[in-house]
Amino acid sequence: AGQSLTQDLVVEACNHTLRGMVMDAAGNPAVGASVSVTRRMSEGSYARSYGDVVTDATGAFVVTGLPVGDYMVHASTPTGAASAKATLDASVNLTLAPLGKLSGTITGAKRRLRVSISSDELDVHRSEDFYATNGAFVVSGLPAGTYEVVVNVDAYGVLVGVRPLELEAPGDLR
């Protein structure tokens, strides 16, 4: 009672813009491509998402209301994806590359299999569970790049392996 607390708050001005074009592999506008913008919050971490937009009839997109920072722009369609670092108030052009998949079989996995893949370079982090597949798995919709793969077997969380894998799209990594 009778005590007060003073706290300094920093309010960021959100008056910057990212704009650009998304093209398919043939150089045509990628109409209706999903575009997301993430802000780098710390070294190697793009944790804050700003705006999910869709490209227009010319493949163009605009994301407004961004604070100062380092950004990564991701564009995707059901058949292709691209990512690039972006500079505020500048234009970024992305060309979609075909997507690949990671598949394989883990010997001894009987009930549940969790496959976690990550690429800090591409800002891709996914985990998928597979049940009653006798260890077989397929993770689809991956852009080309280097991934770290972690496999947990059954309900016990047994770590099977971690290693960098190179996925060259289009294609499969087994």
What's the layout of helices and strands?
Elements: E1 16-23, E2 34-39, E3 48-54, E4 60-66, E5 71-76, E6 80-86, E7 91-95, E8 97-98, E9 100-105, E10 112-119, E11 124-131, E12 136-142, E13 145-153, E14 158-167, E15 172-173
Parallel strand pairs: 1-7, 9-15
Antiparallel strand pairs: 1-4, 2-3, 2-5, 5-6, 6-8, 9-12, 10-11, 10-13, 13-14
How does the major sheet shape up?
Answer: 5 strands, antiparallel
Please give the count of helices. Answer: 0
Report the strand count: 15
Distance between the termini: 65 Å
* Helical fraction: under 10%
**What spatial form do the alpha-carbon principal axes imply?**
flat
Please state the CA-atom Rg, rounded to the nearest Å.
20 Å
What are the segments in which pLDDT stays under 50 over at least 5 consecutive residues? 169-174
Largest sheet, spatial ordering of strands: 3-2-5-6-8
**Residue share in β-strands:** over 45%
What are the secondary-structure elements, in order, as H or E?
EEEEEEEEEEEEEEE
Could you tell me the mean pLDDT? Answer: 81
Class per helix and strand makeup: mainly beta
